[in-house]
Amino acid sequence: MTTFLMVLLAVVLAFGGLASFSLAMARRIEKAVPPQGGFLDLDGERLHVLDKGAGRPVVLIHGLSGQMGNFTHSLVGRLCGDFRVVAFDCPGSGYSTRSTNAPAGVRAQAATLAKAIRVLKLERPVIVGHSLGGAVALAIALDHPDCAGAVALISPATHPMSAPPALFRGLAIRSPALRRLVAWTLATPAGLLAGNWTIRQVFAPEPAPADFATAGGGLLALRPCNVYASSSDMMAAMGRRDEIENFTGRYGSLQMPVGMLFGRSDPILDYREQGEAMKLKLPSLDLEIVDGGHMLPITQPDICAAFIRRMAAKVGEPAAKSTLSP
User: Fold this and answer.
1) Distance, CA of 215 to CA of 249 (rounded, Å)
2) Are the beta carbons of 141 and 305 closer than 8 angstroms?
3) pLDDT at position 14, please?
4) How many CB atoms lie within 10 A of CB 10?
5) Is 274 within 8 Å of 156 (Cβ atoms)?
6) pTM for the full model?
7) Per CATH, is 36-163+241-313 categorized as 2.60.270.50?
8) Sheet of 286-290: strands edge to edge?
9) How far apart are the C-alpha atoms of 209 and 190, rounded to whole Å?
10) Is the dihedral of CA 128, 133, 138, 139 positive or negative?
11) What is the pLDDT of residues 158-208, one digit of tens each?
12) Where in the chain are the domains?
């Protein structure tokens, strides 16, 4: 056997071993973090949905590499006594599916969730979006205003960025084929090795809860299918900057109440670039800056719950007219 063939065989065996390990770990993760809700079949896909409580609907949309556990860890229990709380795993995230050829852009995700809102007959819900989920929430408000009675943004992405946040640069894989290869071989073992460090960075400067990996669903982000979806989501957001750029010119047209809660020490998204910049385009924005980092739904659940209640109380109020020229 030639040296080339020996090296090739060694590479194939190595990647095969990594793929087997990743598949085995995905199964262990699913046993440790099972689905929390039910499933909604929609256009050939399955959305994982938690529907709890009664009253004014509140829809929860998580961010990049997240899933509904980001909300169920601490926030849902504080809301479901007074609201009908509906938390989604976004398409491709958590236990929701997304076909290989389905688009991963913000507007595509918003269209899917808007359709789910209509199917579930959620009348004028408060749309809560965290991180990249904030961009999805804004896309729902702009493109599907019948599906949003108010918008409550928590540490949101509202403006395009020239580069991904440092913590997520490992997901910047342009080639779908390479993205799939990395997701099914290297990503899971690398994620397990760096897990504690990554969680500390996500929660900085606040401490991460000890049970975030399981109760907060953090482990699900390490499954190969979720790694692939997260990379696709980020590349779509970065590659289609014109989508979010288009949003910024439309913020002044929003007719429903819009609020924003941001951590002053957020290491992932800057409150000045994403919060104060939106306030300039939408003067009626209810902007609240608090001490804290990026993961406010878990680290500051009482403040988040109070913020959502404040926005829910505004449903039915017209937004203040923008002072910007059309």
Assistant:
1) 39
2) no
3) 57
4) 10
5) yes
6) 0.93
7) no
8) 38-42, 45-52, 83-88, 56-61, 126-130, 150-154, 258-263, 286-290
9) 21
10) negative
11) 999 888 888 898 899 999 999 999 999 999 999 999 989 999 999 999 999
12) 36-163+241-313
